[in-house]
Every structure is written in structure tokens, then in C-alpha cells.
Amino acid sequence: MSEPSTTTTLRPATPADAPAIAAIYAIHVLGSSATFEIDPPSPAEMAQRIAAVQDLGLPWWVAEREGCLAGYAYAGSYWPRPAYRHTCEDSVYLAPWAMGRGLGGTLLARIIDEARAAGRTQMIAVIGGGNENPASIALHERLGFRQVGTFERVGCKFGRWLDTVLMQRAL
Fold this sequence. Notes:
By secondary structure, the protein is of the alpha+beta class.
């Protein structure tokens, strides 16, 4: 994927974004420990995930550069039990050409604001691969998250046991 020009637009995701979102996510599923999914979801599955998040009144935003999807972020339910209804979990994924340019921070800041407006009071980040993903940890720290724990060896991907770093931010 080559990089388009630098005009970036943030907007809510639509079902039409599902193929591009699925393509970006597939890169991370197949090539990183950032997610513990093993098989990339189809565009149809991704469209269902977008709708499920938005049906909860939670944000799912995309970033575009000259009509090309550069990344996305959303705040989904943390756990389905009613006592967790004020807590959400964030996810941020970028196209490889969009990494390291501040776009992840821009998307995450928007998701934080939108989740707060939706009545959420806490946001959790579950960083797959733990300390193998220092950029994600640093991104969350820059936006006010603090590390609250590590689940050790809770996922197995690429023939290796992986940790998750847990981070939390009050909204």
C-alpha cells in the first residue's frame, strides 16, 4: 500500500468501510501479537462488529487520507455483565503506512471523548503481546492511561505464549 497525501479526515465508520477495515485488521491478525485473533474476520463479520458497537451507542471512527482508509478506532463493551456497563475497552489499528505519524493518538483521543459523551466512566486497554507492543503502550500512556497489570502467558499465537498488558483511564 502506498501512502496517499496528508489530508486526514476523521468520521464515524459506515458499513461501506468494512472491507477496508477488515483489510487493515487482517495485517495485524496475520503479522502481529497486537490481537489474539488467529483468522482475520471477513468484511461481512467486520460490518456486524461495527454495527454492534454503534448499536450500543459507542464510537467507531475511521481516519481517511484522500479517500484511503488509514486506520480506525472504537470503544466496545469491556464485559457483557451489567455491572460493567460504564466501562469500555478501546481498540486502535492503523495501516502500516500510517503508523508513527500521530494518527493513532488522534483517533484514540476522539474515541475517549465520544465514550465519555456516551456515559462511560472508565476505559480499558488490553495490549496484546504485552511488552512486545511498546508503541501501543506508549500511545496509551500519552493519553492518560496507566498500567494496572499484566496477564502472563494467556494467549498462544505464532507458536509462542504471549502476555497482555492491562491499562486503564478514567473518563
